[in-house]
Amino acid sequence: MIDRFVCVGLMVLFGIFFSSQAQAQKILEEFNKPLPVVEPIDPAKFQEETVEYNVMPLEDEVLSYSVRLPKTWAEFGGGGIKNYSLNNNLLGEIARYDGPPGIGPRSRFTVQALDLEYQLSAEQWFLQYILTNGYNLQGMKVHSDKKVEGLLVIVEKDISYIVRTVAQINGKRMILAQYFISDQKWYEENVMQGAAVSSFKLTHLKDEIIEEMLQFQFLDIAEFDYPVSWELRAPPLRSIDRMAVKLLMLAAKGSLNGRIEVNLASAFVVESLPDEIKGLKKSFEDKGLAFGKLIEKKTGYQFNDDVEFAAVEAYEVKGTASKLVDYEVWFTIMYSGDYYYFITLLTPSRDADFFVWSRNSETYRLIVESIEPQPETLLEE
Prior knowledge:
Oligomer: single chain
Strand content: 35-45%
Order of helices and strands: HHHHEEEEEHEEEEHEEEEEEHEEEEHE
CATH class of the largest domain: Alpha Beta
Low-confidence stretches: 1-13, 19-24
Structural class: alpha+beta
Number of helices: 8
Number of domains: 2
Mean pLDDT: 87
Shape: elongated
């Protein structure tokens, strides 16, 4: 059944029924600045001038780290922060090291931690952190989904600090390490700053899903996981040829912040993949949404090994009844076990509400990557 569709090309199909012109992304483009490169320090000199700290704050392995800092520095309070309780609203300082006193503000190195509420990438969290606090980003480097490095300008009591930062997710925590230098000391200390931040390592890495996950099954055909904070609505099952389920992210007072739909269609009833895609588009248009340009073709998704092909694209969408909010619709098409999978996400756009968009897009990735066709439905070659 699959051969008659594969030759068409999924990405071409998307292009036929939706616009194929890339659209600028205001927020992400605004922060698309490369991390400034600093002069590397001689490794032997760095070892000689620094001391290594290996610390387990609050006797919590997830918070454990190592870092090398100048020998002239001192750990704040002689032994770190005591009796600190973390929460998911405020960054808590779990360690601090101060440079020697002198002319001008002292440099410092801090480690902060935060309990995360839901799944998101380190980049998404870091951009939210910048937007919330109004910091000036000088450059950023994404090391992985769980680690990002940046250079910020932060003003404290009329003093400007150049702050090199590493934000890294470990377990269900965000760990934020920052090296502060006042702007008047930047040129004399930025080499040490870069080397010290590069030396910062989390020593007990732990990979966890942030939210509690539930599981939904399409009979013995397929299953997927979804966060407990999303409300699942499954209509009565009338046929195994077509099955569907909705997941809703409800905000305060019952307003809708995001919607994910998972639709399965048997290859035996799908006569035309282009017609299926047109039907998907029409279902959004019937809700008063007008499609715009292609935003991006998503890469990097880790699909189940039994998925024979898959494609993910995101489009801009506008509400025809209101000009106040712009939306995005994400489409995933997969084929496995003689079934087509059509997974969609409707979310406020990244420029309209970056916080909600971050949560929705990461939840969508989790759901898509968790879809697992069951062995009974897989056809033998």
